[in-house]
Here is the input.
Amino acid sequence: MAQEIERKFLVSVLPPNIESYPNNEIMQGYLRILDDGTEERVRKKGPHYFYTVKSGKGLIREESEKKITEKDFMELWPKTRDKRVLKTRYDIEYEGVLIELDIFSGHLEGLIVAEVEFESEEESSKFIPPQWFGTEITHDERYKNKYLALHGRP
Here is the structure.
């Protein structure tokens, strides 16, 4: 598994010209969510399909992801009923990092979250968020997608 170093923030004001950034519709459903932080999910992102396992909590987590076929996704998707998130993800380049801005829909309508992944903890700690970022929620488990899928907005 590869390490994922990620910080997460609430967003209350969208950046200017949001419609000009590349974006994809995302359908994400959870097959298993364990008490130790391990999650097993499937995702459709634009025309691509993925099966992912994540483990751990907080800033640094382990992640393993592989591409799957549309057929595989469609077979697994019904097993994620009542454990899903729907969102549009915008990719925003900002001072050498990629901000993934998620605007949720469905039962999470109105929630907007930004995620930034880093190569190292040091790089993460030096990051200065843009002014349109709100409260940091990296360590707030209630804003993890798996929690949102099960319980809705905090």
